[in-house]
Amino acid sequence: MAAGLDYIPPCPPLYTQNRSIQQEQAQQQATRRTETDDTTMAAPQPQKTASTLRLAIARGAHQLDIIGYSTWRMLGAHNTVRSRSFDAGGFAWALVCYFVSNTTTTRGVTLASIALALELLRNETDEAVVATASIRIDEPTGAGRWPAAEWHSAEPHVFPAWSMSAVAWELAVPDAFVQHKKRYVMDDCLTVHCSVEVLKEESADGATRKYMVGMPPPPSLSHDIHRLRQDMWWPDVTFTVDDAKVQAHKLVLAARSRVFDAQFFYGDRVNCKKPSHLKLKHPIATTFLARPKNPPLYL
């Protein structure tokens, strides 16, 4: 080494530096590509399934004849007349007539009033029983002199699941019978008709099936009206603005302006016979000819 000269370390070959830079750039691009693939990978679409449930109604009816009706009333409260069990919807039911205290007296004898209840004798399932009921007391002669006294439950009643003993639902006595008892009792016999409807949900096909969901398109009213103006589909009015003619549609103008609504359709919205050519003057001309990038709905 010559005296007085500083030592300069040898520089690595240029091709070695270029290869290192290329390798680093390739690694960065691979990393970015992996991150992009992870972020842009489409999320798996959830599988859409459908099933059909059908509401089935099982009906049951029973007729209860109370013979010696006046005797039951004279015996007073706490007397009960229970029908035989009948079937509705696969369950056993019974109509119960019991008598409650009343201040009504006939020939010095206090007579009790009748009340009604529907009993679900047993429910050995893990689902509640939903049912509606109706009561009908016909005019006994059958001549149709008086209308039948009827009552229908306004809403269904829910009986609990796993009821091992009878569960009662108090029903209403028809108003017509309460007000005119003598019309519906003949030969000391009262006949009560009870109908029960059990509501059940049943699977229509018993299996789950796939289905496609149709999505409505996004709203595009403004673009459609803008296209209506650009393509000039059936214009029905022409404006003269600074010696330029502009065609438009009366319906769209009337929808956006009360002034145009009155000018085009006042007094006759079906058969419009107003002028179809208008001339605009003054500073409104420049405003009318302005065409913004996203045009409003006035043409």
Explain briefly what this protein structure is.
By secondary structure, the protein is α+β, with helices and mostly antiparallel strands. The chain has helices at residues 14-40, 69-74, 175-179, 221-231, 250-256, 258-265, 284-289, and strands at residues 49-50, 53-67, 80-82, 86-88, 91-100, 105-106, 109-110, 113-120, 129-137, 149-152, 157-159, 167-171, 189-203, 209-210, 237-241, 244-248, 277-280. The model is unreliable at 4-8, 13-17, 36-42 and 294-299 (pLDDT under 50).
Give a verbal description of the structure.
Pathway: Protein modification; protein ubiquitination. One of its GO terms (biological process) is protein ubiquitination. InterPro entries: BPM1-6, BTB/POZ_dom, SKP1/BTB/POZ_sf, TRAF-like. The protein is α+β, with helices and mostly antiparallel strands and 299 residues long. The chain has 2 domains: 53-203, Apoptosis, Tumor Necrosis Factor Receptor Associated Protein 2, Chain A (Sandwich); 221-289, 2-Layer Sandwich (Potassium Channel Kv1.1, Chain A), CATH 3.30.710.10. Helices cover 23% and strands 32% of the residues. The chain contains 7 helices and 17 strands. Strand 4 and strand 5 form a beta hairpin. The chain is elongated and about 105 Å long.
CATH class identity of the largest domain: Mainly Beta
The main sheet comes to:
5 strands, antiparallel
CATH homolog superfamily of the largest domain: Apoptosis, Tumor Necrosis Factor Receptor Associated Protein 2, Chain A
Helix content estimate: 10-25%
Using only C-alpha atoms, the radius of gyration works out to 44 Å
The counted number of beta strands is 17
Instruction: Please mark out the parts with pLDDT under 50 across 5 or more consecutive residues, or reply none.
Output: 4-8, 13-17, 36-42, 294-299
Structural class determined from secondary elements? alpha+beta
Query: What is the oligomeric state here?
Result: single chain
**Structure annotation, total helices:** 7
Under the CATH scheme, the architecture of the largest domain is Sandwich
- The tally of structural domains comes to 2
SSE string, helix = H, strand = E? HEEHEEEEEEEEEEHEEHEEHHEH
* Percentage of β-strand residues: 25-35%
Can you tell me the CATH topology of the largest domain?
A: Apoptosis, Tumor Necrosis Factor Receptor Associated Protein 2, Chain A
Give the termini separation: 90 Å
Pfam family, one: BTB
Pathway: Protein modification; protein ubiquitination
